[in-house]
Design goal:
32% of the residues lie in helices and 17% in strands. By secondary structure, it is an alpha/beta fold. The protein has 3 domains: 77 residues, no CATH class; 64 residues, Serine Threonine Protein Phosphatase 5, Tetratricopeptide repeat; 86 residues, no CATH class.
């Protein structure tokens, strides 16, 4: 269920190369999430971004440094975007980092109740996207799937957590399925997370047929042999749904997971594997 991706939320205390001098034509650079709070330090200044990264900006040669209204961010010598610098709220960055890192440590120790308390404290310190993502992971790990998937989906509306296939569907004008009546409707089910997630979730496709949906899939070539029963993506769909999020809209909980067999191994493949 993607729980291992919890670590993607831990982007703190990372030095980010920032160039303060804006030269040439940079209007074509993408806009990155803004700095929502900044503070002066002994070495320059640091800021907290909307996603939850802490940027450390150091003055050169000990000179005083002023905080600009915009910075150009570069990684490995290549400019990757422009970022507005604001102070939308007052944040104690050290307090935010203390709680954030406590969440990560407690989660790794499987102390999810304590991690959730620290997660709430992190969000009170600063409601960043990465802090929200980590809370969603904790809820999922705690078996609170409905809440966790709701918060997970909210995070997936924004970079860096938006899934490419979901973004493509939204750009094509296809609305996300949010539990609407599917009788007579065509639902595009997307492979949007891990291969294991999709394989496990195939068990729930017959439930979509049972509630009247016309189901089509968008999966990578590696999974098409497992999904050949289901038609691949074609035009004219009414809704889309990342396959993992079927858990939420089909009201699946840890207590009612369908554990019955749903895939069989092809005999010719089994014989071939046995020979090898």
């Amino acid at each position: 269920m993607g729980i291992a991706s919890f670590g993607c939320g831990r982007v703190v205390d990372a030095s980010v190369e920032v160039t303060m001098q804006i030269e040439g034509f940079l209007d074509d650079l993408p806009e990155l999430d803004p700095v929502i709070y900044h503070e002066l330090t002994d070495y320059g200044w640091r800021g907290l971004t909307q996603q939850g990264e802490v940027l450390e900006v150091k003055a050169s040669n000990g000179h005083a440094i002023s905080v600009p209204s915009e910075i150009i961010v570069a990684q490995n010598g290549r400019r990757i975007g422009r970022r507005a610098v604001r102070s939308d709220m007052t944040v104690d960055i050290d307090d935010y980092l203390t709680h954030f890192n406590a969440v990560v440590s407690l989660y790794k120790d499987n102390r999810t109740d304590e991690a959730l308390i620290e997660s709430d404290a992190t969000l009170r310190a600063a409601p960043t996207l990465r802090a929200k993502f980590n809370r969603a992971m904790i809820l999922l790990a705690s078996g609170r799937w409905a809440e966790g998937l709701h918060e997970y989906w909210q995070c997936e509306q924004h970079a860096p957590f938006m899934r490419p296939r979901a973004q493509t569907a939204l750009c094509a004008g296809i609305p996300a399925w949010k539990g609407e009546d599917l009788r007579g409707k065509r639902l595009l089910v997307l492979h949007a997370h891990g291969f294991g997630d999709t394989i496990m979730m195939l068990r729930y496709l017959p439930k979509l047929l049972a509630i009247g949906a016309d189901v089509v899939l968008d999966v990578p070539p590696e999974l098409q042999r497992l999904t050949k029963r289901w038609p691949l993506h074609r035009f004219g769909v009414d809704y889309f749904c990342p396959i993992l999020h079927l858990l939420r809209w089909l009201d699946v909980t840890p207590q009612n997971v369908d554990g019955s067999p749903y895939k069989s191994v092809e005999r010719m493949l089994a014989n071939d594997w046995h020979i090898k």
